Amino acid sequence: MPLVHEPAMTAAPLPWRFCVAPMMDWTDRHCRVLHRMLSARALLYTEMVTTGALIHGDRARFLAHDPAEHPVALQLGGSDPRDLAACARFGADAGYAEINLNIGCPSDRVQSGRFGACLMAEPQLVAECIAAMKAAVRVPVTVKCRIGIDGDDPHLRLRQFVEIVGEAKPDAFIIHARKALLKGLSPKENREVPPLDYALVHAIKRENPHLSIIINGGIHTLDEARAQLAHVDGVMLGRAAYQTPAILCGVDAQLFGAGEPVRPEDGIARFMPYVARKLEEGVPLASMTRHILGLFSGRPGARLFRRHLAENAHRPGAGVRVLEDAISLLTSRHALVEMADAS
């Protein structure tokens, strides 16, 4: 498949042209179905699952996902090549379209398990892990990393990391364009405090045209994503896609040249049958509606929509009617008053 250097709609897009980042406690299966209802083309990622959880825990629960989510990738956390190979097979057998190795998470718990961002300091081990995973499965195997850790010079660390890990031929590098400061910053602070260095990631692509490079970190709009596609092969959005999911409504049209933008109302209508089905299976309504609170941000009635769900979705027996009533508030008299006041 040809590499994409310019955001031309005539080029065959890489599968990673636009991705939604794996985010712990956020990108669960319900979130991913919602996102799929807004974009047919975006590549979605699971929350990180550790090799220990899959090998020793409830594997079926951790790997469960809905067919509607596809294309969806499984993100793994671990550092033992044999365990990662086994878990890659579990993921491929479960139907995931890609297996991704997390070399970016900076949390203390992850560090104590010797995986995540601390493995930036062990590129040879990461290469061995990628090689073992690729030998185990036929689906793409990718790596998500930072530009460096702690006192590193990112220009040296990232180039060394990409050179060594690249020998194992991962199908793509997804690079969060910030360092991870493993000492002194929380995971939240590590997503915001270390400065972004997009130019370094762009340079990595120029120096390695044979590699697929996807950029992540601090990208908030589709215009910003399009600008990045002049330099790299793909873009990954995280918090912006989750907190304001209406961004995804324009992905297929604007970045893939496919059809017209989706209306948030149409996306939520597509999501409704899934909600009804999961309610019958005993899934609490709030577990699903928590992911749509920001869908109508900035629109008249959005505050009423959020409040109604926040106050009612968690109630015992809450069903689809709660969601329908919340949607009706977007066109209610109160929403129209909001619109008049804003103008």
What does this structure look like?
The structure is a single chain. α1 runs antiparallel to α13 (264-280), α4 (81-93) packs parallel to α6 and α15 (302-312) runs antiparallel to α16. The chain has helices spanning 29-38, 51-56, 59-63, 81-93, 108-112, 123-136, 154-166, 187-190, 198-207, 222-228, 239-243, 251-256, 264-280, 285-289, 302-312, 320-328, 333-342; strands at residues 18-20, 43-45, 49-50, 72-77, 98-103, 141-149, 172-180, 213-216, 234-237. The protein is an alpha/beta fold and 343 residues long. The protein has two domains: 18-256, Aldolase class I (TIM Barrel); 264-342, Four Helix Bundle (Hemerythrin (Met), subunit A), CATH 1.20.120. It has an eight-stranded parallel barrel with strand order 1-2-4-5-6-7-8-9, surrounded by six helices. Residues 1-12 have low confidence and may be disordered. β4, α4 (81-93) and β5 (98-103) form a beta-alpha-beta unit. It has 17 helices and nine strands. The protein is 44% helix and 13% strand.
Concise summary:
The chain has helices spanning 29-38, 51-56, 59-63, 81-93, 108-112, 123-136, 154-166, 187-190, 198-207, 222-228, 239-243, 251-256, 264-280, 285-289, 302-312, 320-328, 333-342, and strands spanning 18-20, 43-45, 49-50, 72-77, 98-103, 141-149, 172-180, 213-216, 234-237. It is an alpha/beta fold and 343 residues long.
